[in-house]
Write a structure and sequence with these properties.
Mean pLDDT of chain A: 88
Number of strands of chain A: 2
Number of helices of chain A: 6
Largest interface: A-B, 32 and 32 residues
Radius of gyration of chain A: 23 Å
Strand content of chain A: 5-15%
Order of helices and strands of chain A: HHHHEEHH
Structural class of chain A: mainly alpha
Oligomer: homodimer
Largest sheet of chain A: 2 strands, antiparallel
Distance between the termini of chain A: 72 Å
Helix content of chain A: 55-70%
Chain lengths: 118, 118
């Protein structure tokens, strides 16, 4: 079974080096050598990660320039974000409940402090 | 090297069955038997997926009830969405550029149509 598009995206993102590479590309096009610099990694190791990102459609490599710069391709990231969006009310609800709880704690504390004063 | 939290989350999401399980839990708590129903899958196979989701902190299994219902835990999904948020301007920019291009095409078409009428 060939993995579906969303699985390929999430799988490509499930690695800290690959996420760091994408973060590096936020600033613009970068050569493979430049990309490899901040990582204690051989060029072939970085190239392997780039291939995973390229296959997932997360980066594009220019065929025009000799140095074949990499740039970010955000389409699959949008699809991943759209998928996550369905769950937003769950984490917002949890934060609301936390807020509510903290509010109650604060009210209780104030009440106790006033009680002591009386 | 133990995988970081975000990698564990993305890795857990990189499977269509696991994403379908999470989607099923949007409606509320569900038993493992009920979760297994829509999938042409054995209970042990479903349990394996549930373990991955549980280890990633994406679901919680109640220890109170005999049937140990599963429920969604959205915290890691929020972290994943927060990470993707850094890239939003990239896909919004691409959509803006597409809009611009479509607008230009439309203007060109209208111009040609008017040209033909004259």
């Amino acid at each position: 079974m060939s993995p579906d598009r969303l699985s390929t995206t999430f799988s490509a993102l499930a690695d800290p080096t690959r996420r760091a590479i994408l973060a590096r590309l936020i600033a613009g096009e970068v050569s493979v050598t430049e990309l490899a610099e901040p990582f204690a990694m051989s060029l072939p190791a970085v190239s392997k990660h780039l291939k995973v990102l390229e296959r997932a459609g997360l980066i594009k490599r220019s065929r025009e320039a000799q140095w074949r710069p990499c740039r970010l391709a955000a389409g699959p990231l949008k699809d991943a974000a759209d998928w996550l969006e369905h769950y937003r009310h769950f984490w917002e609800e949890s934060l609301d409940r936390l807020d509510e709880y903290l509010g109650e704690l604060q009210a209780q504390e104030q009440e106790e402090r006033h009680g002591r004063k009386d």
